[in-house]
Amino acid sequence: MNKFQGTGVALVTPFNADGSVDYNGLKNLINHLIDGGIDYLVSLGTTGETATMTKEEKKKVWAYTAEINNNRLPLVAGIGGNNTLAVAEDIKAFDATGYSAILSVSPYYNKPTQEGIYQHYKYLAEVSPLDLILYNVPGRTMSNMTPETTCRLANDFKNIIATKEASGSFDQFNQIMRDKPEDFLLISGDDPITLPMIALGASGIISVVANALPKQFSDMVRQCLANDFKGAVPAHLSLVEFTRLAFAEGNPAGIKAALKHLGVCGDTVRLPLIKASSALEHSIINEIEKLVQVA
């Protein structure tokens, strides 16, 4: 599982002004992240605005991402939803060339019981050609996957290898770390608490902020993984304000504003999301210039 140690990045999907996928921008982003020293890529997670993309667009983005990555880093594909049978069909139809795992969000909107969540992932684990990473994000799904359910899945299915935890609950993190199999990974799903989660035993982060600041973020994570928390604290604190701004008007509007300023890709998002306000964009630019200058 060492391939999922460190800093993974949930890629934004760059769009042209007319709303079509900007493949040149995606190429720039992938190279920007690899040059910045991140450890693996996650294609079409929530940050990739998958809720507004067609199946055909997703197929093309996955294939193009694998082509540009060219096996330089491990690749994860985001394939999830609240219709178990449909998600299973998407997983079975997925061209896994160049990919190492699938990140699958816990079912949203339906608000299933814990047994329903377990049965959902059981079904997916039995059909998936790749390893699965669970994704618990109650703020979006309105349904929390408990530590008991997480660890039950981890113990029952060898191809369920990790969980991206975005519950924000350290009580939950504690229980997972205590009860999980030794080789099962706890991955932070929240940028601001990466340092304390690694201190607890997490393997790293699947980050949004690192889209814009891959070197700054991955260097900090490496210090943490080397148990140099004293050395990592200044870098951690230096990212606090940028992280707050990046999420101030939702994800990925803020991080796309930063990427536009850096010349990586444009800041177009698809409705119902809208671009960052001019005031927020100005604040993001001011903050990122401080961070890039420091780096």
Automatic annotation (TrEMBL):
EC number: 4.3.3.7
Keywords: Amino-acid biosynthesis, Cytoplasm, Diaminopimelate biosynthesis, Lyase, Lysine biosynthesis, Schiff base
Residues of the active site: Y135 (proton donor/acceptor), K164 (schiff-base intermediate with substrate)
Gene3D superfamilies reported in the protein's UniProt record: Aldolase class I
One Pfam short name: DHDPS
Places the protein is found: Cytoplasm
Pathway: Amino-acid biosynthesis; L-lysine biosynthesis via DAP pathway; (S)-tetrahydrodipicolinate from L-aspartate: step 3/4
Gene Ontology annotations of biological process type: diaminopimelate biosynthetic process; lysine biosynthetic process via diaminopimelate
Keyword Protein transport on entry: no
Site residues, Part of a proton relay during catalysis: T46, Y109
Binding positions (pyruvate): T47, I206
Keyword Transmembrane helix assigned: no
Enzyme class: lyase
Catalytic activity: L-aspartate 4-semialdehyde + pyruvate = (2S,4S)-4-hydroxy-2,3,4,5-tetrahydrodipicolinate + H2O + H(+)
Gene Ontology CC annotations of this record: cytosol
Any GO MF annotation of the entry: 4-hydroxy-tetrahydrodipicolinate synthase activity
Protein family per UniProt: Belongs to the DapA family.
General function of this protein: Catalyzes the condensation of (S)-aspartate-beta-semialdehyde [(S)-ASA] and pyruvate to 4-hydroxy-tetrahydrodipicolinate (HTPA).
Subunit note: Homotetramer; dimer of dimers.
UniProt name for this protein: 4-hydroxy-tetrahydrodipicolinate synthase
Organism: Pedobacter petrophilus
Designated gene of the protein: dapA
